[in-house]
Amino acid sequence: MLALAASLAAPLLAAPAQAAPQGEALVNSKCITCHAPAEDGQLARIGDSRRTPEGWDMTVARMIISHGVKLSADERAAVVKYLADTRGLAPQETDGYRYLIERDFNRVESVQGEAKPAFDTCARCHSYGRIALQRRTESDWAKLPHYHVGQYPVIEIQAGGRDRNWWELATTQVPAILGKLYPNDSGAWQQWQQRERASAAGTWRFVGHRPGRGAYEGVATIEADRAGADRYKVKFQFDYADGQRETAEGEAIIYTGYEWRASVKQDGMDVRQVFTLSPDGQTLSGRWYENGIDAIGGRLLAARSGKGSAERLLAVEPTHIKAGTTQRVTLYGNNLSGDVSLGDSITVARVVERAAGKVVVEAQADGTGKDGVRAAAVGNARLQQGLALYRNVDYVAVEPEQAMAVVGGGKGPLPKVPVQFESVGYTFGPDGKQGTADDIRLGYFPATWSMANANAFAEEMQDTAYAGTLRADGLFIPGDAGPNPKRRFGTNNAGELAVTATVDDAGRQLSASKHLIVTLQRWNDPPLR
Questions:
Q1: Quick one: 395-519 is in which CATH superfamily?
Q2: What's the pLDDT tens digit per position in 332-360?
Q3: Measured between alpha carbons, how far is 323 from 327 in angstroms, rounded to an integer?
Q4: What is the distance between the alpha carbons of residues 74 and 61, in angstroms, rounded to a whole number?
Q5: In whole angstroms, what separates CA 29 from the centre of its chain?
Q6: 186: nearest Cα among 89, 294, 314, 304
């Protein structure tokens, strides 16, 4: 199992492209021995399914580990590229499950409706997203339970499986559901294959948010790498709202015509970028994270800039303004020109700074304005979710929604996995009630952070003394891995904590808490959990 985990950890960006063999030739020479061609020319089993690049990499890794397929790092990368390009997913087929590809794990999946039996049967051991990011024929879905029982003989009696006739469900009802919801043949994939693939080369303007650090903007240069098709050399410059700057440089590859994967060195960190390129080649968006510590990262939205690029308003910072106050507001985008509008009840008193990529204004909010998010505009460039006006912050919430840290270090091989908390302000909205659909999200607010034991047992075990530390910026750093002789029972540094944010809204103190689990290390961590 450890060998398999290590094999799966190999990056998709593996070897210099100039040395990479042709993927199709490798598939025909390495795979055809077991996967014989059918009458339609498709290779058995391979032609019955489609996956993301990470999904194909996991499949190839299993062939190497379980079946002794001999592939160098170059060859493995080439095979994955070919399979992802020819048997990948259309962009819309990944909607709703990109968190798994982006390794944004602080969430609990919930599936209802037609897919519920499949969720209950299969997502006890791995995520449902891992299923939803595949496409198979019904007959191929039906083969999976047989593989699972052969590979994991106790699957029927583990992880809550004994409350149902697992084998009957897994071999009859579930394949029919999955064959209908996630079929191998789809109109979306057929249409995507017919599209002309866009190049990412050019200059880009981007904005984003990094939890714990705040908003940023910047520019990127993407150059086609002569070493191979769909490969790029990339440079990014991040300018944070607090005045700090980071640079990033590395290499990228595009799979399936839109799946951007890059490895860059960013401010001393080894960073992975998981973005999508829009069908028209005008937008890049997604998440980046520190390699090996995927809890640290940020989101990014980029628009093509330079000659011939469109007017785009990408972000407004800050995202909220209190009624009856005056503050500076910055609008970020591309080719910005013309008058600035921040919506009703918000007046632009003066323009402080103006450039094609950034406009800074002094904004005045009417004291009688109604709570709500206004559209912002600079000339013809418009952003529907622009600036929120509010009279009072009605309540705050702590993000992420589900918080789990993992102990690490302590002379062990795996790093600590922290949690970066943030406080978000809301108003009740028109119905005056908290937690309903019309609540208005205002954005991030600075907070004072504290933590306490979550319950009586945590108090008894003194979890606050051992489970980790909470920094002033909301970053929780878990304790060291391994048994702790100072603790009761000599146990490890796991624990249950309550993390509280306190926000000051013009002298009013609002607080919210989040339950935090500090748990043990995960030794098998595939690209798709």
A1: Immunoglobulins (2.60.40.10)
A2: 999 999 999 999 999 999 999 999 999 99
A3: 11
A4: 13
A5: 35
A6: 89
